[in-house]
UniProtKB/TrEMBL annotation:
Topological type in the membrane: Multi-pass membrane protein
TM helices/strands, residue ranges: 21-41, 53-82, 103-123, 143-164, 171-190, 196-219, 255-274, 280-301, 322-342, 354-375, 387-410, 416-434
NCBIfam families: matE
One family name in Pfam for this protein: MatE
Family membership: Belongs to the multi antimicrobial extrusion (MATE) (TC 2.A.66.1) family.
Localization terms from the record: Cell membrane
Name of the molecule in the record: MATE family efflux protein
Source organism: Cellulomonas iranensis
Keywords attached to this entry: Cell membrane, Membrane, Transmembrane, Transmembrane helix, Transport
């Protein structure tokens, strides 16, 4: 091993690294916030249909986002694999990986949409939906699940484009999808009088349109490189196998979120509706910070594919600095402006009060969240999925007692929601920060080559 590959070699900042990070992170932000923006738009419009409708949306959107979240490996594993192949000079192989990932996404999307439609009443009842809240939740979920194949295709195609260091195309598609979603929802909810069903249908149509658009872009690139377009069992299986550890890791995150929603349900309808507002804003800021993680994935994967360990170390340090700084800025904005923007989501004073206290707690934790999300991106870009799977299990085990304590002893309403977000945004995120931080200090995750 020469000095170029020695992990102990000092890692000066590579020339132009900030420009490279921003060139990938800023456009990636648009693609990442597509789903949270859909939820925010849905929340703002549905909130004016009544507290029961907003509470139903809280439960149904949690199920929908959980399904999409479990499949985020379609983007993350594809980004890492495509970036490594590109770094090793194999553009055709990189695009072939992307095509195989899209076939896997389409099959999973159709299967999961069917399962979600059939099981909607039982799944939502398990989350605590009762009475009119349950009716609203089932309606939204069943009208929105036809968009699942489109959203999973968005994940896979976006992952391929990120690996190719193209985050601008997903930005254009995401921005167009967000505008279309808002227009469709307004038309279908109020103009057509469909209520919460119109919200779900509008989101589904927007997601399908985005998926078709991105697939066309990747297919065009694959044809130009000579990659095949037909499904290959070996390639699809390779994508699925690479995604299993990330699926486990994501499952632990979603279980933590589901546990949080279940706990919020026991705090009363106002607290649950307030939690929907906090969760929507948290999701938006989390994905905003994850834009830096996407830049880290692509750049670290490329550097390791090119066998450049010193550059990998430098990228780790600099992206972490960006993550913590961006988290601090977002924290100030989220916390200071909370009393103003919560009014957009609900006219109910109890819901507004609960949302504000939850948002203040979440805001305090955002700098730590920036650290966590960037480290996740670095390790995913390095292909360190097995560690992330085990770390996910460990952090979930650490969080469960805190959430159960809130369920058992926290008072209903705003105070209870504040304690719930202390458990999630502070205890759970601290466990993730410690586990990934210790891993990044070592060298076992830095495996070089394609």
């Amino acid at each position: 091993m020469d000095a170029h590959d020695d992990p102990s070699t000092p890692a000066p900042r590579p020339p132009g690294v900030d420009r490279q990070i921003l060139a990938l992170a800023v456009p990636a932000l648009g693609a990442l916030v597509a789903e949270p923006l859909f939820v925010l738009v849905d929340s703002a419009m549905v909130g004016h249909l009544g507290t029961d409708a907003l509470a139903g949306l809280a439960l149904a959107s949690t199920v929908l986002v959980t399904v999409i979240g479990l499949c985020v490996f379609l983007a993350y594993a594809t980004t890492a694999a495509v970036a490594r192949r590109l770094g090793a000079g194999d553009r055709q192989g990189a695009l072939q990986t992307g095509v195989d990932g899209m076939w896997l996404a389409l099959g999973l999307g159709v299967l999961l949409a069917g399962l979600a439609w059939v099981t909607a009443p039982w799944v939502l009842a398990a989350l605590g939906a009762r009475g009119e809240v349950a009716v609203q939740a089932v309606t939204y979920l069943r009208w929105s699940v036809p968009g699942l194949p489109g959203m999973l295709l968005v994940l896979a195609a976006t992952g391929a484009l990120r690996g190719l260091q193209d985050t601008r195309t997903p930005l254009v598609v995401a921005a167009s999808g967000a505008v279309a979603n808002a227009a469709l929802n307004a038309t279908l909810i109020y103009g057509a009088g469909l209520g919460i069903a119109g919200s779900g249908l509008g989101t589904a149509i927007a997601q399908l349109g985005m998926g078709v658009w991105l697939v066309v872009v990747v297919v065009r690139g694959a044809r130009g490189s000579g990659a095949r377009l037909t499904p290959a069992a070996g390639g699809i299986w390779a994508n699925a196998r690479a995604g299993v550890p990330l699926l486990v890791r994501t499952a632990t995150l979603r279980l933590a979120i589901l546990l949080t929603v279940w706990t919020a349900t026991g705090l009363g309808a106002a607290a649950l509706a307030g939690h929907q507002v906090v969760n929507a804003v948290w999701g938006l800021t989390a994905f905003a910070l994850d834009a830096l993680a996407i830049a880290a994935q692509a750049l670290v994967g490329h550097a390791l594919g090119a066998r450049d360990v010193a550059r990998t170390r430098a990228l780790l340090r600099r992206t972490l600095q960006w993550g913590v700084g961006a988290g601090a800025v977002l924290g100030v904005l989220v916390g200071a402006l909370a009393p103003l923007y919560v009014r957009v989501f609900s006219p109910d004073p109890d819901v507004q009060r609960a949302a504000v206290v939850g948002l203040v707690v979440a805001a305090v934790a955002l700098p730590m969240a920036g650290w966590v999300f960037v480290l996740d991106g670095v390790l995913i870009g390095a292909g360190d999925g097995p560690f992330l799977a085990w770390a996910g299990v460990a952090t979930l085990v650490a969080y469960v007692p805190a959430a159960l304590a809130v369920h058992a002893w926290a008072p209903p309403g705003a105070a209870g929601l504040a304690w719930l977000w202390v458990a999630f945004a502070v205890v759970f995120m601290a466990a993730r920060a410690i586990s990934t931080g210790l891993r990044a200090r070592g060298t076992r995750w830095m495996v070089v080559g394609a």
